[in-house]
Amino acid sequence: MRKKALFLFFLCLVAATAAHAQTEYSRPGRFFIQLQNGQVIYANKLQYKSPIFKQNFFLLDDSLKYNPSMVATFQDEDGYYARVETGNNMDAFAKRLLDGPRIDKFYTSRTTYDYNPYGYGYGPYGYGGPNTSRRRIYFFSKDDGPLYLFEFNNLEEALSDNAASMALLRKYRKDKVINTGVTVVGAGMLLLGGVLSANNGQSANGAVHISPVMYAGAGVLGAQFVINLFQKDKLTQAVQVYNYQVQQ
After folding, report:
1. CA 186, 209, 204: angle at the middle one, nearest 5?
2. pLDDT tens, residue by residue, 94-126
3. What is the spatial distance between Cα 177 and Cα 111, in angstroms, rounded to a whole number?
4. What share of the chain is helix, strand, coil (3-state, %, to 5)?
5. Are 31 and 76 in contact (CB under 8 A)?
6. Do 198 and 111 lie in a common domain?
7. Model pLDDT for residues 204-217, shown as the tens digit of each residue
8. Which residues of 121-130 are buried (b: 16+ CB within 10 A; e: fewer)?
């Protein structure tokens, strides 16, 4: 009787181990790439490789290689990415920042070049030639559709069926008009103050008389900068409100 019980226990253990192994085998990987044709390939390890003098590629589980131009979206350990333009490098993909029920927000980085008018070599402001910097460009998608630039006109169309979101967009447009007006006024005061300061000439000890108008212009622009620094992004707020009300 004891031997029979041990035998049954052994059979159950083998069956449980086999079932667990089958589950592990059939379970899709944590990461994936979705090809342009809609096919999804899962993997437990996903890497983007940029070898020197060779073509970039996605490497799945250290064995499968895919050209980035074939990929529409992918998920790796850093997050979810969607294609925003043609190309076979990482700049062609945007990373998802906001995962909403209907509206998702993405961003990608772009390298910008500011060319020194003095050419290469040392100019009056340092070494000449192009200065590079990285800046973020934001996008959004609605209902897993294509990505569009995250800007007022596109969002106005996408969020038009939500009154609360539209109210925030109108507030954004009003604030932008006010900001533009303040910038023009402040810049105009700085310019006028510079002209007045130049006309005042120098004092006997060589000091330049700076016009109070110039200080006022700098104050206007400085105050505007501080206020804008602490204001919330109303475009993103409009998207968050839209997603929140969809969930209710």
Report:
1. 170
2. 999 999 999 999 999 877 776 655 554 444 445
3. 29
4. 45, 30, 30
5. yes
6. no
7. 555 667 777 777 77
8. eeeeeeebee
Instruction: Determine contact, residues 54/71, Cβ cutoff 8 Å.
Output: no
Rounded Cα distance between 232 and 235, Å, is 9
Note the pTM of the prediction, 2 decimals.
0.70
Give the total number of structural domains in the chain: 3
Structural domain harbouring 39: 27-77
- Domain assignment present for residue 54? The answer is yes
Residues 6+ apart with CB under 8 A from 236: 98, 105
Q: Treating both helix axes as pointing N-terminal to C-terminal, what angle do 163-200 and 212-229 enclose, rounded to 10 degrees? A: 160
Q: Are 169 and 238 in contact (CB under 8 A)?
A: yes
Q: Which amino acid is at 43?
A: A
Q: How many CA atoms lie within 13 A of 86 on its CB side?
A: 0
Query: Residue 159 and residue 103: Cα distance in Å, rounded?
Result: 9
Give the single-character DSSP code of 30: S
Q: How many Cβ atoms from other residues are within 10 Å of residue 159's Cβ? A: 23
Q: How far apart are alpha carbons 178 and 176 in whole angstroms?
A: 5
